[in-house]
Amino acid sequence: MDNNGSSEQAKAVEIRGVSKSFGSYQALKPVTFDIRENEFFTLLGPSGCGKTTLLRMIAGFEQPSGGEILLRGADIRGLPPHKRRVNTVFQSYALFPHMTLSQNVAFGLENLGWAKERREARVADMLRLVHMEQFAARRPQQLSGGQRQRIALARALAPEPEVLLLDEPLSALDLKLRQAMRDELRTLQRQTGITFVFVTHDQEEALDMSDRICVLGDGEIQQIGTPAAIYEEPSNRFVADFIGETNFLEAGVLSVDGDNATVSTPLGVTLSAPQKRAAVGGQAWMSIRPEKISLPARPGQIAVDGTIEGANYLGGYTYYVVDTGAAKLRVSKRNAASRGRMFEVGQPIKVSFAAESVRILGA
Amino acid sequence: MNAEARNARWNVLGLLPAQLIMLATLIVPVGIIVLVSFSTRGPYGGFDYVFTTAPYRQILFNEGWTGELEFNPQYLIVVARTMILAAATTFICLLLSFPVAYFISLQKATAKMLLIYLVTLPFWVSMIVRVYSWIIILGNDGVIAKTLHALGLVDNMGSLLFTDTAMLIGLVYSYIPLMILPIFASIEKLDPALVEASHDLYGSRLTTLRRVILPLCRPGMMAGSILVFVPCLGAVLEPILLGGGKTMMMGNLIQLQFGAARNWPLGAAISIVLMAAVLVFLVWRGLRAIRRERAEAAA
């Protein structure tokens, strides 16, 4: 699938200069971006970044302080939530406790005035889609968290919304279930072909499921792109820091040549690497991801001397902290062999990395 | 003795004070009333411990000189009037309380506290004074009559006071806080996300009120209805002060038997019938709730 797509792709939602203030506090500075038809689009950011506010404005629960929101080309400003062809999967699921599961799923269809037969067929289809058909007569209180989650999905998908909004729907589930639901959500999105707008603060979830991610921070868009682009080519320090883990070392910019910059680093080496927003004389950081550092050093790479200062064994991986004197580097090493070569704390060691794995990020 | 059995014994002992209080304040007094209701009327009030079912018979029948029984609907009319007034009061309270409670729940925390305090404020004033104040409002020279007259709307409307309507107004006024508070509590417990979910699923305001908010506030409405209906059955002040003593409710009837009529056993018998009626109603509701829960658990 072509995730980058062309700009000619149909747009499901257009956010144009939308901002939101609560009193004197600006929760969201004016933002502009498009969400394409049939894509799994994720709004990712730490709490308080404005992602939920943005979602609630698309749903109609909040009104933007400025800007306009277009749904399939039509301005939906001022439309109440019940007149917008979008449905929401709430963080707490918000299933109606006084209704059975099939009544819950039928609720939206009844309000849309679907005829009884068509409605019942749709409810049965939806319950089958989320593998809950045998529980149709139960009530939400009798379900587990994962089951409630599925019913919330079925209920929101039943009226065939133009866009499905998901507000941190996995945060209430335990780890194993969360993993399973990720796959299920992705499958559901492909099966139904409905545009998903997913809000989360969990970067792993975002990377796993999304076609495109919009990273929000401090009420602003930090970067929009595919998971790989966001991880590998972060546009600034915030994104590099928020998505995954990385080592930041303050760097002195010697020269900038297009997409590359030459910097001097505290590791005592001068290197040339892809840059974003770097300027000669300006503040900049070199960023190198823990898994991109080789331990022990590989020939042909930039090598640095150090000692192992700490080791965190995490099953599949071990995280080492390597003290190079000038800086401490976090290095992850896959525990490939059943008895992989473990390094001892205090052991002197050489680590290495390739210059092209380094990113230079300006302030 | 194992730990569990020892615990069970302590549980019984620990509950003893509560049970003693229940015994002394609830079971013994009711027992005395039952006893009186099966006793013979004393010549100057009071009662003699001579077993008879006559007081219960008297509720429905007059006993002639020769011992023949003649059907007497008078007390039954009082019972019916009491039931109707109590039901009407409950219904009106229900209609008025929901918007009030909903309005309060929409306020900010401090305003909410203040409004709830205002709702309970009348309880700080003596019930007699509060009911009395309605005489001033409803009377011939009262606020309503004078205002309507001054506006030239009504020339001579006749007194609102000393009518069943006046009693009803008094009852609604007296007991409405008992309806507002539980409904408010149930609205407060309502998850705002459920209201949003209803709007999100194309439910208009009216649909949301009818299909989500009202059904979820039913427990509060039920609790409020019981809290209003039951004391209404025993209301005494409103009929005397606002009904002018012309029409009686069960409370007045009972008071009359213990007072002027000096027929304690009959008063006790009517009390027992009243309590039994309330008990039957509450047990029926309780059983229905249990049945519904079971049915849901089985689904």
From TrEMBL, chain A:
InterPro entries assigned: AAA+_ATPase, ABC_SmlMolc_Importer, ABC_transporter-like_ATP-bd, ABC_transporter-like_CS, Mo/tungstate-bd_C_term_dom, NA-bd_OB-fold, P-loop_NTPase, PotA-like
One Pfam entry name: TOBE_2
Domain of life (superkingdom): Bacteria
Substrates-to-products reaction catalysed: ATP + H2O + polyamine-[polyamine-binding protein]Side 1 = ADP + phosphate + polyamineSide 2 + [polyamine-binding protein]Side 1
Positions of the ABC transporter domain: 13-243
CDD domains: ABC_PotA_N
Protein family: Belongs to the ABC transporter superfamily. Spermidine/putrescine importer (TC 3.A.1.11.1) family.
Function: Part of the ABC transporter complex PotABCD involved in spermidine/putrescine import. Responsible for energy coupling to the transport system.
Protein name per its UniProtKB record: Spermidine/putrescine import ATP-binding protein PotA
UniProtKB/TrEMBL annotation, chain B:
Membrane topology: Multi-pass membrane protein
A Pfam family reported for this protein in Swiss-Prot or TrEMBL: BPD_transp_1
Transmembrane parts of this sequence: 12-38, 75-102, 114-137, 157-176, 220-244, 264-284
Residue ranges annotated for the ABC transmembrane type-1 domain, each copy included: 79-285
Record-given protein name: ABC transporter permease
Keyword vocabulary terms for this entry: Cell membrane, Membrane, Transmembrane, Transmembrane helix, Transport
Family: Belongs to the binding-protein-dependent transport system permease family. CysTW subfamily.
SUPFAM superfamilies xrefs: MetI-like
Cellular compartment(s): Cell membrane
Superkingdom: Bacteria
Primary location group: membrane
InterPro entries for the chain: MetI-like, MetI-like_sf
